[in-house]
Amino acid sequence: MPETAFATPRRILVTGAGGFVGRHMLATLARDLPQAEVIGTAHVPTPGLEPLDVTDAGAADALVERIAPDACIHLAAIATIAGGRSDPEGAWRVNVSGTLALARALRAHVPHCTLLFASSAEVYGASFRDGAALDETALPSPMNTYAATKASADLALGAMAADGLRVVRLRAFNQTGPGQTPDYVVAAFARQIARIEAGRQEPLMRVGALAPQRDFLDVRDVCAAYVACLRLADRLPAGAILNLASGTPRRIGDILDSLLALSRVTPQVETSQALLRPNDIAVAHGDASRAYMLLGWRPGFDWTTTLRDVLDDWRGRLASEA
Fold first, then answer.
1. What is the pLDDT of residues 61-71, one digit of tens each?
2. DSSP secondary structure string, 53-96?
3. Which residue among 27, 61, 93, 171 has the highest number of C-beta atoms inside a 10 angstrom radius?
4. By C-alpha distance, which of 254, 287, 284, 289 is closest to 144?
5. pLDDT tens string 184-231
6. Are the CB atoms for 211 and 245 separated by under 8 Å?
7. What contacts 142, CB < 8 A, 6 or more positions away?
8. What is the C-alpha radius of gyration for the chain, rounded to an integer number of angstroms?
9. Are the CB atoms for 179 and 188 separated by under 8 Å?
10. DSSP state of 16
């Protein structure tokens, strides 16, 4: 970490705190910034969290005015490619209109507040086609609705930074870890393996394309980057963009092999046409040099530990259902 840290925020608003990243974010804040008051929100009624539909601009404005946060971590989103495909209008409302409503409320009521926006490496899209590790200067070129909504919000917040909004845009690459839903590939593999181990699924795994390579991060490393941003918020330029990436592309098929090596089963593997994506990119990985330079951040979790934690999480979930 850089030698000098600035004062950390006293009150932190976390939207989407009931989701996968949000739950890890709350745990990380409680551990690393115990002096801060953290207020989490959720779209559905959730014990301990404030209700908030970010598409309701009046509700967002009233909540921000009442809480008056020093920092806001905006995670609330329709956060999957499949979700954007199945409900494109909802994705635009939540990911763009909802984000801008929150940003306007912050600028109006707490202009000193730092907004950390969960953008996505998906915004780079077709720019991955040359196979190089992309840094923040790469051209956004989204290839699906989810990516288009994230790119639109990302760019709009950058424009608002020129008008005084204190915002940092974090473009995280593929995140995984314990607690993730099977909408994502590592969790989907782990769930099937755990089900086979438990005798709840025949020894056959249905998978999508195994040849693509992706840049994976442990969600707990991503949360550590957010904390680093909070600690150094006054040092980061408004509108800054930071990639969060390992820099290491991992073949999807190799991830499956690694999970199977940690398991107690040797199932057959079958490609399902329903799990294949049109126009898939062969290799997508990132350059996070700027995050290291500005934050002193780099991923710390061992990849095998991450995979073991995901698999053990699914084993525990199935055991609790028995």
1. 999 999 999 99
2. -TT-HHHHHHHHHHH--SEEEE--S--SHHHHHH-HHHHHIIII
3. 171
4. 284
5. 999 999 999 999 999 999 999 999 999 999 999 999 999 999 999 999
6. no
7. 122, 123, 125, 148, 150, 151
8. 19
9. no
10. T
